[in-house]
Each structure stands twice: as structure tokens, then as C-alpha cells.
Input
Amino acid sequence: MGSTKYITSMGELSRKDNSLCFRKNQKNVYLPIENIKEIYCMNEISINTKLLDYISSKNIMVHFFNYYGFYSGTFYPREQYNSGRLLVKEVEAYHSEKRIVIARKIVKAIAVNIDEVLYHYYKHNNKEVKNTIDWIRGDFKKLIYEQNDIQSIMLLEGELWQRFYSAFQFILPTDFMLNKRVRRPPDNPINALISFGNSLLYTKCISIIYQTHLNQTISYLHEPSESRFSLSLDLSETFKPVIVFKTIFDLVNNKKLRVKDHFEKKVNYCILNETGRQIFIQAFEERLDKTFVNKKLNRKMTYKTAVKMDCYKLIKYLLEDKDFEFFSLKEGQ
Output
């Protein structure tokens, strides 16, 4: 997959011979170009067209984030994998019953993974989360197959996430309480972590989809949009409980992230400071590289590979009508 480079400081990124040079505080830091597949600019970074031309020739993506840690946009090299046959099938699926099938599978996978995350806390004597687990295993399982249009499926997805968020009060300490999910901008530390983590996962999915023949703009649960890569929104949803929220719960409950030390006081602690971002990014990347045993293939794989596997499952379904399920933490596939 290639490596990821994060730049969290202000500075200037340029080409220097056959390397990348990041200049900050009058000092140069050189980044060997070999194996780099994506660069995250998490602060104000100056670049030039010479650099963009060079990294485009190397098929490197650059993701830009704003002051609040929100995804702003991506420098996207020209497509290296194109398939007219698959593109036709993607469009056909969007306009057929297959869209409903795929959308249901996405929301079902979200529920399965939320269930597994919450069950971990239930097993460790946190019985208060049982109501949400029971709803997922009972009412939700019936309701998901009764929804026959995208709007109804998305409403059920919204209820699923809301029930998950309501369980946070039993998992997180009081200074990370979630009273209401607020996105742009976040209004407290936990909303800041959720928004930052979701943005990182969304851009990671953009980079992974780029390595396949799928078209970034054709989605099935979310409506296709001219201003975003909506397929990345679809594919990232199922991995949020596994990657984003497990990362948040670990960092907060083990006091690796603390409100007074890792959030900006001047904006009411609703933005991670540079140290906080670095801690979260490191944990996020470690989570992506964490291995599990894929029971179906009987071999170890990383969560990052699992995201790409979901892309291939979708491709096979579109081209060959091969039935599939999106990633399940419980089944390990």
C-alpha cells in the first residue's frame, strides 16, 4: 500500500532533486520519495506547481485539512486504473435494486461492528450498554430488511448511530461526555475527536479506492455529489466503529489524551492541539496496521487491507453478482 506521511507543522513543502523537502523554522527536513503513497497536510503548508507535477508523476495523493482538523480537499493524481466495463456496472447498480442491497449491507455491517465494540465493554462488566446491543440484535435485524428505499435505510442508520452515541456515557469519563453530535465545527473534546477521526478515515478510503478500479464518485448509501468522493463515505462507515471509535476509547480511557493537555483552551477545548493530533494520528495508523485473522482466508491481515478487500468484494458483486458482506469484526472478514 505504501507509506503515509503526516505534516502537522506550518512550513513549505517543495521538490529537492528526487526527494521532498519540508522547510520549517529555517530548517530543512528531507522526505525520501520511495514508497510514499499519500501525504497529509494538517497545518498551513505552502506548495508550488513544480512539486505537484512531481508527486503526480509518482501517483502520490496529498490530503489537506483546515484549522479545525476537517478535511478540505485532495490533490488527486490522474487515474491509474480505469475500467469502462466496471464503470457501466457501477452506474447500472446505482439505478437498480442493487443500490438498495448494497446500502442495506453497509448499514448492517455498521450495526455488526458497533455490536462487537459494545460487547467488549459488556463482557468487562459494563452492563449498561446491553440495551443498545439488544436493540441491534433484535429490532434492528428485522427493521433493516423492511427498508426498501434509501431514505428509510439512512433514517435507520441515523438511529443506529444515535443509540451508539447514547452508550458513550457508560464508556467514557465525564470530561469526554457526548450530549449531542455536533460536526462543523465541533463544540467539545469528544466531538472534536470524532470529527478528526472520521476525516482521517474518509481520506484513507480515498487513497485505498484509488488503488482499485472503482469510481470514487458513484456511491450507494450516500447520494453521489459533485463536491466529494461519496464512495469513500460509504466504505468508511463500516470501519468507523472498528478504527475511529476503538482508537478514541483507547486514547481517552487510558488517559493518553487529556482535555487540559491536548486540546486548545482558547477555543473551549473543541480542537486538538498539535501534540494531541500527533498522538491521535499515531494511534490511528497503528490501528490500521493492526492484524487480525481472516477466518475465511485463514490468514492474518491488517484493517487497512480489510478496507481494500471490501472494495474487491464490491467489484465482484457488481461484475459477477457474487454475494458478499462488508467487513465484520466478529467474523474477522
